[in-house]
Design goal:
The chain contains twelve helices and 70 strands. By secondary structure, the protein is mostly beta strands. 10% of the residues lie in helices and 59% in strands. Helix 1 crosses helix 2. Strand 60 and strand 61 form a beta hairpin. It has a 64-stranded mixed sheet that branches. It has a six-stranded antiparallel sheet with strand order 65-66-67-68-69-70. The chain is elongated, with a radius of gyration of 63 Å. Among the domains are: 167 residues, no CATH class; 161 residues, no CATH class; 197 residues, no CATH class; 88 residues, no CATH class. The termini are far apart.
Length: 1263
C-alpha cells in the first residue's frame, strides 16, 4: 500500500511539473511577445508615425479637457523620457490664445504615470506668449478654458491628473499680457502693457483633490513692464492656489531702484478680488513710483512698511511707516490711504525739512521760500484735504489748519493760521517786505497764483515788527486778489503811535502800493526808527502811491512837543513828499513850520524849514523868527555818499538888535565825529567870532577861537542862555586841545561894562588855564565904580569835561586868594540891582584852601560909614557898618547895622554855611525899629519887624512879623475922561493879566527865588488920603510870596475906623467900612466905605440924610448916592449942593458943572443910565469935547427912538469958543440902507452966527 501511494504520488508529481513547465513556457512566450511588442512600440513611438500618434493623443486629450482649441504642429523626442512640442497653442473659446509657444520641451519619468500621477521633471517654454484675460465676473481665462470635471465620491480611486507636479518650469524669452475688465487694477495701463523679455524658473505642485495643495514657486524671474516702462530684475516667491484665493509667501520684487517684500492673500471673487498683503519696502525709487502713480511727482528715494487691504483694483494702503527723501525734503508718515484709485488720506507726517521746490510740484503758487519742518496732519481725499500743520522755518514758527479743495481747476480753501515771531519777508523770499509777525490769520477763497488768487483775508496781530515798527497790536481785513492785498481797514498800534487806513498793497518785490493812512503818535521816533530820539505828539495824513521798489509818499504832518537830537519845538506843521522810496533814487522834499524852536542854543518863535534830498545829498534851508524881534536864516548841505557823512553850514545870518552873518570864504562842517572849522568868521558891525581847527566828538581836538568886541548878550541869545544874565563886551582868544572828557583850555582877554548871572562889573581881565580838572586863574574884577577892584589868583578844582553826567567840583586841592583893592560898598551893586549912590570903604581879603568838598575859608570883610539909596522906595540909608568873617566852613555876619538917617534902625547878624565851595544853609536874623521903608509922594510907611532868613541861596525863606506903625497911602485922584463919540466909536479890548514882555530874559533873581511868609499888623496910624478924603484904617494882613514868583500877595481885611469924604463941595462923615485884600499879586484892595451928611430944613420934608457909598477898588472906585427919605439921583445932587431938590435958574450952571465933574468918575455910566430911565430917554450923555479952536466945551446929548426905524437926537455944546445946537433924524430904509438928515445953528464968541444942514445916505456891508 505504501508503494502504491508512492507511485501515485510520483505520477501526480510528474503531471504537475509538466503543467508548470508549460505555464512557464507560455509566460516566457508571452513575455517575449510582450517585449517584442514593447520594443516594437517603443521603436514605433520613436518613429515619425509614433510622434504623430503622440501629437494626436495630446491634441485629443487636451481637446477633451478644454472648451477651447488645441493646436500642435508636431512632436519630437522620446516619449519614454521626454518630448518636444513644436508650434503649440491653447486657444480659448473667444479665439484668444491662452498660451502659444514656439517650442515646449518636457522631461519626465514613466513610473509616476503608472500611478496616474503627472510628475514632470522639467518644462522649458521657448518664446512663449501668454495672454491672460479676466471677465467681469472675475474669472480668468485659464480657469474658464477647462471643462468641468465630474465630481467623484471621496472614496473613489484617484484618476489621471490627480497629482500634477512640475519640478522646474523654465520660461525663456517669454511675454505676458493681461486684459482686465473695466475698473479693475487701474495702476497699469493694461491695454498697452506687456510683460516682455520674461525669463523665469518656476515650480508647480498640484493635488487636484486637495484644494489647499496647489502651490507654485518662482525662484528667479525677470521681465520688463512696458506701460509704464519698468525693468524688473528679480521676482521670487511662493504662491498657494485655492479655488478662490492666492496665498503669497516670501515674495521679493526688485527693480533698479526699488526692493519690495510681501506676504499675504489675494482673494478672487465674482465681484472683485481683494488683497490682504503685508508689504515691507526698505528701498523705493520715487522716480519709478511716479510711473505708476503720476500724482506722486517727487524725486528721490523712500521706504514703506504697511499693508494693502481691500479690493485688489482699489485697495486701502495702511502706512505703518513711510518715508520720502527727495534730497531737498525728508518726509516720514503714518496712517492710511483709503482706496488708492479714489484715495482718501488719513495721514500724520513729519517733515524735516520740506523744501519749497518739492511743494511747488503740487502747488505752483506755493508762496514760501524757506524749507519748513514740523508736524502735518492730512485728512480727506486729495481733491479736498483737511490740513493741520505746526511748522517751523528759519524765519519763525507758524501753524495752519483748515481745508483745501483741489477738485476744481483752481484750488479753493478755508484756512486759519497763527504765527510767532515770523519773518514774513525771509519766509517768502522778499527781503524788502520787512514783517516779523505774531498773530492769527484767516484766508477764505480760491487760487494761489497771480492770475487766480481771490480770497478774503483777516489778521489780528500781537507784538510784531512791521518795517522796523515795534507793533503792539494790529487788525486788518481785506481781500487778496492776484499779487495784491486790498485792505478795507488797517489798524496798527505801537507803544505811542496809532496808524489807521486803507489801500492796496502788492505781495511781490515790485508790488503796487496805493494807500491812505492816518497817523497819530506821541513819539515820532517809533515811526522813523534810526533817526534818533524823538518825543512828539503828531498827526499826519499820508498818501502812498507806487511800488515797493519806488513809491511816492505825500503827507501833511502836525506835531506837538518835538524833541529830537537836541532840537526841541512846541509844534510843527508841514508837508513831506518822498519819491522813489524803496529804490536807489530816493528823493525827499519837506516844507514846514516849527513853533518855539530851540536848536543849538537858539530859540525861535517860528521856524520855516525846507529840505530837499536826492542822490545821497540833502540841502537844508531855514528861516527862524527868534524871541523878540530877532530872526535867523541858514543853509546847509548833507553829503551821505562818502565814507563819512558830511554836514556843512553854507550860509548863516542872525538878525536881532544887530545882524550877525557868516563871512564868505569860511566853512563849518560836521564830518563823522569831527566838527571842522576852516577860517570861520561870524561878524556883526565891529563884532567878530572866529573859529579855526577841529573839535572832535571822539578823539583829540585842535581848535583856536577868538571873540573881538563881542556882546555877551548876543552870544547868550545864540547859545540859548537868558540874555539878561550876560552883558558886556568881550575881547578874548584861546585854544582847545585834548578830548571832550579831558579838555585842555587856555583863555586870555577881558570883558568890559558887563554882568554875568547878576554880578555886575566894570571890567574883568586876565587869563584862565585848565587841564586835568584844575583851573589856574589870574583875574581882576573892576566893580561897577571905576577904580575899585577884586583880584582872584590861584588854583581852583573844576570839571569842564564836555560830556554830561559829571561832578563839576571834583575832589581836588583848592588854593585861591580873593582880595579887594580900593573897594567900597559899591561891591553890593554888583549883586543887588537897583541900588544907587553907594559909598563907604570895604576892606576884603579871603584865602580858600583845603579841598573842594572840604574847603577852609580864612579872612574878613569890614565896612564903615556906608550909605546907599533904594530908588524904588525913595529911601536913603546911612551909617552902615559891620564885620563879616570867613571862618573855616562858614561865613559869620557878626553885625551889620544902619539907619534911615532919622530915627529908624536895622541890624543883621548870623551865619552862612559853605558847602563844596558854594553857599549852603542860611541862618540870618534882622531887627528893624521904626524904619522908613517907603518915602514917596503918595506913600510913607514906617515899620517895626523881626525877620529870619533861612534856607539856601537857591531857595531862601524869609519869615517874621512886621508892624506898620505909621503909613500914609495917598489915593489916586479922579481923572476926567472923554466920553467916546458914537459917531467915531472904536472898540477897545483889554486882556486881563497881560503884561509887557521883559525886553531881556533873565534867570530867576534872588528875589524871585525867595519865599516870603510874613504877618503884617497895621495900627490905627495908617491913613488912606486924597484931596477930598481921609480914612484911618487898622487890621492884620498876611504877606506871602512863593518861590518862583516875582510879586507878593496880601490877604486879609483892614477896618475903616474914622475919617471924612468930600463930594459936591460938601464934607461927609465916615461912618465905617472895610478895605479887602484878596491875596492877588496886584495890590489893589477892594473898598466898602459909607459916608453921610444931614441936610437940615429941606422945604416940605425937613431933615434929609444923604449917604455916599464908595465901592470898587482903590484904583477903580465907584460912588453910589442914596438918601432918607428917598430922592432921585439928580435931586440928591441938588440937595447936597443947594439944600433943595430943585435948583433955581441961577444955580443951573453950578449944577451943570457938578454933573460934568461926575462925568469923569467911574460911576458916570451908571448915573446917566438911571437918569435916562427916569426921563424916558434912550440916550443921555454928558461929556467933554475939544473944539477945532482947541477950547473945551461941555456936550449934552439926548436921543429917542420914536419908532423902530426912526431915531431922533438933540445935542447942545456950550462953554467953548462956539456954542452949537444940532437936531438929527436917522431913518433905516432897509437892512443895508439908512438915510440921515441934520440941521443946526452955531454962535461964536464974536457973535457971528451960522447954519449947518446935510443929508447922508449910508450903505452897510456886514462880513
Amino acid at each position: 500500500m505504501t508503494d502504491e501511494r508512492t507511485e501515485t504520488t510520483e505520477a501526480t508529481s510528474s503531471r504537475g511539473a509538466g503543467w508548470q513547465r508549460r505555464v512557464a513556457l507560455g509566460v516566457l512566450g508571452l513575455v517575449a511577445v510582450s517585449l517584442l511588442l514593447v520594443v516594437g512600440g517603443l521603436v514605433w513611438l520613436r518613429s515619425p508615425w509614433g510622434n504623430d500618434f503622440v501629437r494626436d493623443q495630446i491634441v485629443q486629450r487636451l481637446g477633451e479637457a478644454t472648451i477651447g482649441e488645441v493646436r500642435l504642429e508636431s512632436v519630437s523626442g522620446d516619449p519614454l523620457s521626454g518630448i518636444t512640442l513644436h508650434g503649440f497653442s491653447l486657444i480659448g473659446p473667444d479665439g484668444v490664445p491662452l498660451v502659444t509657444a514656439e517650442r515646449v520641451r518636457v522631461s519626465y519619468a514613466l513610473q509616476p504615470f503608472f500611478d496616474k500621477r503627472i510628475i514632470i521633471d522639467e518644462v522649458h517654454l521657448l518664446s512663449p506668449e501668454i495672454h491672460l484675460t479676466r471677465a467681469l465676473d472675475g474669472r480668468w481665462n485659464f480657469q474658464t478654458i477647462w471643462k468641468p470635471r465630474p465630481e467623484k465620491p471621496p472614496t473613489a480611486e484617484p484618476g489621471w491628473g490627480s497629482v500634477v507636479r512640475i519640478d522646474e518650469l523654465v520660461i525663456e524669452n517669454g511675454s505676458v499680457d493681461v486684459r482686465l475688465a473695466e475698473g479693475r487694477w487701474p495702476v497699469l495701463r493694461w491695454d498697452e502693457n506687456r510683460f516682455a523679455d520674461l525669463e523665469a524658473t518656476m515650480s508647480l505642485d498640484l493635488l487636484t483633490r486637495d484644494t489647499n495643495r496647489r502651490t507654485f514657486a518662482i525662484e528667479e524671474a525677470s521681465f520688463r513692464v512696458t506701460a509704464p516702462a519698468l525693468d524688473v530684475r528679480r521676482l521670487s516667491g511662493i504662491g498657494v492656489f485655492t479655488p478662490d484665493s492666492l496665498a503669497l509667501r516670501e515674495i521679493v520684487f526688485e527693480t533698479p531702484g526699488t526692493t519690495v517684500g510681501a506676504e499675504g492673500l489675494v482673494s478672487f471673487g465674482p465681484e472683485a478680488d481683494s488683497l490682504a498683503i503685508a508689504v515691507d519696502a526698505p528701498r523705493v525709487s520715487m522716480e519709478e513710483t511716479k510711473r505708476f502713480f503720476p500724482a506722486v511727482r517727487l524725486d528721490g528715494t523712500g521706504s514703506f512698511r504697511g499693508r494693502l487691504t481691500g479690493p485688489a483694483g482699489n485697495p486701502t494702503l495702511i502706512v505703518e511707516r513711510g518715508t520720502v527723501d527727495t534730497g531737498r525734503s525728508e518726509l516720514a508718515a503714518e496712517g492710511r490711504i483709503e482706496t488708492i484709485a479714489t484715495p482718501r488720506l488719513d495721514l500724520s507726517a513729519r517733515v524735516s525739512p520740506l523744501a519749497p521746490a518739492d511743494v511747488r510740484l503740487f502747488v505752483d503758487a506755493y508762496p514760501l521760500a524757506q524749507p519748513v519742518s514740523g508736524e502735518v496732519r492730512l485728512d480727506g481725499p486729495p481733491t479736498r484735504l483737511d490740513v493741520d500743520a505746526d511748522l517751523t522755518a528759519a524765519a519763525g514758527r507758524f501753524s495752519v489748519n483748515g481745508s483745501i479743495d483741489f477738485a476744481g481747476a483752481v484750488p479753493a480753501y478755508d484756512l486759519s493760521a497763527t504765527s510767532r515771531s515770523l519773518d514774513v519777508g525771509a519766509l517768502i523770499g522778499e527781503p524788502a517786505i520787512d514783517l516779523t509777525l505774531t498773530g492769527s490769520y484767516g484766508f477764505r477763497g480760491r487760487g494761489f497764483g497771480e492770475r487766480d488768487l481771490d480770497a478774503r483775508a483777516t489778521a489780528e496781530l500781537g507784538p510784531s515788527s512791521i518795517y522796523r515798527w515795534n507793533v503792539l497790536a494790529g487788525v486788518t481785513r481785506g481781500r487778496l486778489v492776484g499779487r495784491r492785498y486790498v485792505a478795507d481797514t488797517v489798524w496798527i498800534r505801537m507803544p505811542q503811535t496809532t496808524l489807521r487806513g486803507e489801500g492796496t498793497f502788492g505781495l511781490a518785490a515790485n508790488g503796487v502800493v496805493e494807500a491812505d493812512m492816518d497817523l497819530a503818535s506821541e513819539d515820532l521816533g517809533e515811526v522813523w526808527p534810526g533817526l534818533g530820539d524823538w518825543a512828539s505828539g503828531a498827526r499826519a495824513d499820508l498818501r502812498i502811491d507806487g511800488t515797493y521798489q519806488g513809491f511816492e509818499a505825500i503827507g501833511d504832518v502836525v506835531a506837538a512837543g518835538v524833541d529830537v537830537q537836541g532840537v526841541t519845538a512846541d509844534s510843527f506843521s508841514g508837508t513831506v513828499r518822498m519819491t522813489g522810496v524803496g529804490s536807489e533814487a530816493v528823493r525827499m522834499e519837506a516844507d514846514g513850520t516849527f513853533r518855539t524852536l530851540r536848536v543849538a542854543g537858539m530859540v525861535a518863535d517860528t521856524a520855516g524849514v525846507r529840505l530837499a534830498y536826492s542822490d545821497g545829498r540833502m540841502s537844508i534851508d531855514g528861516d527862524f523868527d527868534l524871541t523878540g524881534e530877532a530872526f535867523a536864516t541858514l543853509a546847509a548841505t548833507a553829503d551821505f555818499t562818502g565814507p563819512e557823512t558830511r554836514l556843512e553850514l553854507t550860509r548863516f545870518l542872525y538878525r536881532g538888535e544887530q545882524t550877525w552873518r557868516m563871512e564868505k570864504g569860511g566853512s563849518l562842517a560836521l564830518v563823522g565825529d569831527r566838527i571842522v572849522a576852516d577860517s570861520l568868521e561870524i561878524v556883526q558891525d565891529g563884532q567878530t567870532l572866529r573859529l579855526d581847527g577841529t573839535f572832535a566828538l571822539e578823539g583829540r581836538s585842535d581848535l583856536r577861537f577868538a571873540a573881538d568886541n563881542v556882546s555877551l548878550k548876543d552870544v547868550a541869545r545864540l547859545l540859548g542862555q537868558p540874555p539878561g544874565d550876560w552883558q558886556g563886551r568881550a575881547n578874548v582868544e584861546g585854544t582847545l586841545h585834548g578830548t571832550r572828557a579831558a579838555p585842555i583850555l587856555e583863555v586870555r582877554g577881558r570883558v568890559t561894562e558887563g554882568m554875568i548871572r547878576g554880578f555886575r562889573f566894570q571890567r574883568i581881565e586876565g587869563q584862565f588855564a585848565y587841564e586835568d580838572l584844575v583851573a589856574e586863574v589870574d583875574l581882576t574884577v573892576t566893580t561897577p565904580v571905576e577904580g575899585h577892584h577884586l583880584v582872584a589868583t590861584g588854583r581852583l578844582p573844576i570839571d569842564l569835561s564836555l560830556v554830561g553826567g559829571v561832578d563839576r567840583l571834583p575832589e581836588r586841592p583848592v588854593d585861591l586868594v580873593i582880595r579887594g583893592e580900593n573897594t567900597d560898598l559899591s561891591l553890593l551893586a554888583a549883586v543887588v540891582p537897583g541900588l544907587r549912590d553907594l559909598s563907604g570903604p570895604v576892606n576884603l581879603r579871603v584865602e580858600i584852601t583845603g579841598t573842594s568838598q572840604n574847603p577852609r575859608f580864612e579872612g574878613v570883610a569890614t565896612i564903615a560909614d556906608g550909605a546907599m539909596t533904594i530908588p524904588a522906595s525913595g529911601v536913603r540909608y546911612g551909617g552902615i557898618q559891620g564885620t563879616v568873617r570867613f571862618n573855616n566852613d562858614r561865613i559869620v555876619v557878626e553885625e551889620i547895622r544902619g539907619t534911615d538917617r532919622e530915627r529908624g534902625t536895622f541890624e543883621i547878624q548870623g551865619e552862612i554855611a559853605m558847602q563844596n565851595l558854594r553857599f549852603g544853609q542860611l541862618d540870618l536874623e534882622a531887627s528893624v525899629r521904626e524904619l522908613t521903608v517907603i518915602d514917596q509922594n503918595r506913600q510913607d510907611v514906617q515899620v517895626n519887624a523881626d525877620l529870619t532868613l533861612t534856607g539856601t541861596t537857591d531857595q531862601p525863606v524869609v519869615r517874621g512879623r512886621v508892624v506898620v506903625d505909621e503909613a500914609i497911602y495917598r489915593l489916586p485922584e479922579r481923572t476926567r475922561k472923554d466920553v467916546i463919540d458914537l459917531d467915531e466909536a472904536v472898540v477897545y479890548v483889554d486882556i486881563p493879566g497881560a503884561v509887557a514882555r521883559d525886553t531881556l530874559e533873565r534867570s530867576p533873581s534872588l528875589w524871585t527865588r525867595t519865599r516870603l511868609d510874613l504877618e503884617v499888623e497895621v495900627t490905627d496910624d495908617a491913613i488912606l488920603q486924597s484931596s477930598n478924603a481921609r480914612i484911618e484904617i487898622a487890621g492884620d494882613l498876611s504877606l506871602l510870596k512863593p518861590a518862583g514868583s516875582s510879586m507878593p500877595t496880601l490877604s486879609g481885611t483892614l477896618e475903616v475906623r474914622r475919617g471924612f469924604y468930600e463930594e459936591f463941595g460938601r464934607r461927609f462923615t465916615i461912618e465905617g467900612g472895610n478895605v479887602f485884600f484878596y491875596g492877588t499879586p496886584e495890590i489893589n484892595p477892594g473898598l466898602h466905605v459909607v459916608a453921610t451928611r444931614t441936610i437940615e430944613g429941606v422945604e416940605g420934608v425937613g431933615d434929609v440924610q444923604v449917604r455916599v457909598t464908595v465901592g470898587g477898588t482903590v484904583r477903580n472906585p465907584t460912588i453910589d448916592l442914596t438918601s432918607t427919605p428917598a430922592f432921585d439921583k439928580s435931586e440928591i445932587i441938588s440937595l447936597a449942593l443947594f439944600g433943595t431938590p430943585n435948583p433955581s435958574a441961577g444955580q443951573e450952571s453950578e449944577f451943570q458943572q457938578t454933573i460934568y465933574d461926575l462925568a469923569g468918575t467911574a460911576f458916570t455910566s451908571q448915573l446917566t443910565a438911571e437918569l435916562a430911565q427916569e426921563l424916558n430917554l434912550d440916550l443921555l450923555e454928558v461929556a467933554q469935547r475939544e473944539q477945532p479952536t482947541g477950547d473945551i466945551a461941555t456936550l449934552f446929548r439926548i436921543g429917542k427912538f420914536i419908532s423902530p426905524d426912526v431915531y431922533v437926537t438933540f445935542e447942545q455944546e456950550v462953554g467953548g469958543a462956539i456954542d452949537r445946537n444940532l437936531l438929527a433924524l436917522r431913518y433905516q430904509i432897509t437892512d443895508v440902507f439908512t438915510v440921515q438928515a441934520s440941521a443946526g445953528t452955531g454962535r461964536s464968541r464974536e457973535e457971528t452966527e451960522g447954519v449947518e444942514a446935510g443929508v447922508d445916505l449910508f450903505w452897510e456891508f456886514t462880513y
